[in-house]
Amino acid sequence: MPYEATLPVFTADDAAAEINARFAPKDACGVIAHALTARGRIALVSSFGAESVVLLHMAAAVDRAVPVLFVETGMLFAETLSYQRRVAERLGLSNVRIVRPDPVQLLTRDTDGLLHQSDTDACCTLRKVEPLANALLPYDGWISGRKRIHGGQRIELELAEAEGERLKLNPLAHWSGTEIAAYMEAHDLPRHPLTAKGYGSIGCAPCTRAARPGEAPRAGRWPGQDKTECGIHFIDGKAVRP
Ligand code: SF4
């Protein structure tokens, strides 16, 4: 009987395990350089929020043409839109891709633009989850800015994880707020203008308030609700919300 050799199947789970074993927890630059040079088609997903510039700066040092996916929900602060342009120009990012909701779906499912007032999960699905899922289709993996210090379901984040068949990197997972601030200071990186007004985490304008003294950075997201994630992130292969 002829012998048929079978090649080992290298899954996203395998890749994540290898990266978690290979890199020191705080070696964010090492993880990013590895991802952008050795892991196929990788995109960086950025909200251009309070701490986003750190990851963008690290990625730009490897490749200024890295695809940066920016989900513009149509509900962002004007300050975020101007900050996005400012950061891209400062870092020389040449491949920022604005990801928007499908206009037909918007007209069908959020006719008055007030869906966020009645159903935030449905609104996030329409304005964030679906557009990003479509934008990620060409990629083998993506880089996110999630960190353990954000609390909630993020406290056990690892550097790398599998999201179905796609690899997901969280290079700053183990960084502290002090380390993030020190990196921005050391590289003289521009700050999101709303951080000076107390915003520790910045999402859509209708669903974000400034954090109060002593609160976790993401406490101002979806205030008054038990919702803590928009649904673009997964844990153990399952969407966090909805
Ligand atoms: S954060 Fe608020 S406005 Fe933005 S997509 Fe989600 S529910 Fe809609």
What does this structure look like?
With 242 residues, the chain is α/β, with parallel strands linked by helices. It contains eight helices and eight strands, in the order ααβαβαβαααβββαββ. The protein has helices at 12-22, 28-38, 52-62, 78-91, 103-109, 115-118, 120-135, 177-186; strands spanning 42-45, 68-71, 96-99, 141-143, 160-163, 166-169, 234-235, 238-239. The strands form two sheets. It has a six-stranded mixed β-sheet, sandwiched between helices. A two-stranded antiparallel ribbon has the order 7-8. Helix 4 links the parallel strand 2 and strand 3 (96-99). Helix 2 (28-38) crosses helix 3. The chain is globular. The termini are far apart. The model is unreliable at 234-242 (pLDDT under 50). The site of iron/sulfur cluster (SF4) has 13 residues, from helix 7. Iron/sulfur cluster is lined by residues 73, 75, 116, 120, 123-124, 127-128, 203-204, 206-207, 230.
Beta-strand percent range: 5-15%
Overall shape: it is globular
Helical stretch count?
8
Give the oligomeric state. Answer: single chain
Classify the secondary structure makeup into a structural class: alpha/beta
Integer-rounded radius of gyration:
18 Å
Task: Write out the strand line-up for the largest beta sheet, numbering strands in chain order.
Answer: 3-2-1-4-6-5
Sheet having the most strands? 6 strands, mixed
As residue ranges, the low-confidence spans are 234-242
Average per-residue pLDDT, rounded, comes to 90
Helix content: 25-40%
Total count of strands: 8
The hetero molecules present are: iron/sulfur cluster
Sketch the topology as an H/E string, one letter per element: HHEHEHEHHHEEEHEE
Kindly report how far apart the N and C termini lie: 51 Å
